[in-house]
Structures are given as C-alpha cells and as structure tokens.
Amino acid sequence: MRLTFVTLGCRDIAKMRAFYAGLGWTASGDAPDGFMAFQTGGVMLALYPLDSLAAEAAPNVDAPAGGWNGVTLASNVTSASEVDTVFAAWVARGATPVTEPFDLEWGGRTAYVADPEGNRWEIAWNSAIVFDERGGVLRWE
Fold first, then answer.
1. Which of 39, 42, 45, 141 has its CA 20 to 30 A from that of 24?
2. How far apart, in whole angstroms, are the C-alpha atoms of residue 27 and residue 38?
3. Quick one: which of 135, 137, 119, 123 has its CA closest to 19?
4. From CA 24, how far away is CA 135, in angstroms rounded?
5. How deeply is 1 buried, as exposed, middle or buried, from its count of CB atoms within 10 A (0-12, 13-18, 19+)?
6. The overall pTM is greater than 0.70
7. Domains in the chain with CATH codes
C-alpha cells in the first residue's frame, strides 16, 4: 500500500506555487500543462489546474465553487511548541487562520489554517507519531 501524491486542483497555480514555495517547500518538477509538485517527506504535494484535474478525475461533475470540500491535509510536527511556530509561519505567508493552536484533551496539540484557495491544513503534534530521517511518518505507536 502506498500514498505517493496528494493533488490539489488549483484555480491560480502561480499563487499556490508561490505560497508553498514561500513556506520553504522544495519544488520538484514542473510540466508544460501546469502540473507541479513539492517533495514533502515521503509523499508529493502536487498542484494542477482545477479544470484539467476535473477533466481527468471528475468528468461531467461541477467543480466546487471555492467552499470547503470536506478534505483536510495534515502536517505533523515534532513538538507541541512547534505547532505554534509553524502556524505563525503559515499565517505570515498568507494562510487564513481557521483555529488558533489549542491543546487536545488526550494530550496532542493542533491548529487549522486554509491555504490561499481554501484547502484546510491541520498543523498537529502527536507524541505517538514517529518520523523517519526524511520527515515521513514511520509509524504511529
């Protein structure tokens, strides 16, 4: 079993590319059709023009009008305090705060932001997550 790519259909590829590059993410490939990706540990985050992605993945289905689509992505960090630091960095780069960082009753810490096109990201810390040397999730204990 593998999860290799998460692709976001984008209305404004240039703006989205600048946003993620501004967070310090490393671009890894551009294609003439607008597809591009960022290396993120063990999974690639891809950006692709929404109309092109819809034609491939959801032909004859209306694309969302910009509201939340029910999907969240997560960027887990290595400490509770890092949630606050990463949250602040995302907001400084133009993300919209959805929830300020807060402690969870079971001991984790989390916050939510929306990227420039409204995709929801959770910035989270969970002591049960073990990372490999690339920052990918090795296991959940």
1. 141
2. 4
3. 119
4. 14
5. exposed
6. yes
7. 1-59 (3.10.180.10), 72-141 (3.10.180.10)
**59, pLDDT greater than 90:** no
User: What DSSP line would sit under 68-103, residue for residue?
Assistant: --S-EEEEEESSHHHHHHHHHHHHHTTPEEEEEEEE
Place of tokens 């310090």: 24
The residues near 30 (Cβ < 8 Å, ≥ 6 apart) are: 36
What is the DSSP-derived secondary structure letter of residue 7?
Answer: E
Fill in the amino acid letter for 82: E
Q: What is the pLDDT of residues 81-135, one digit of tens each?
A: 999 999 999 999 999 999 999 999 989 999 999 999 988 999 999 999 888 888 8
Report the amino acid identity of residue 140. W
And the tokens for 107? 């001991």
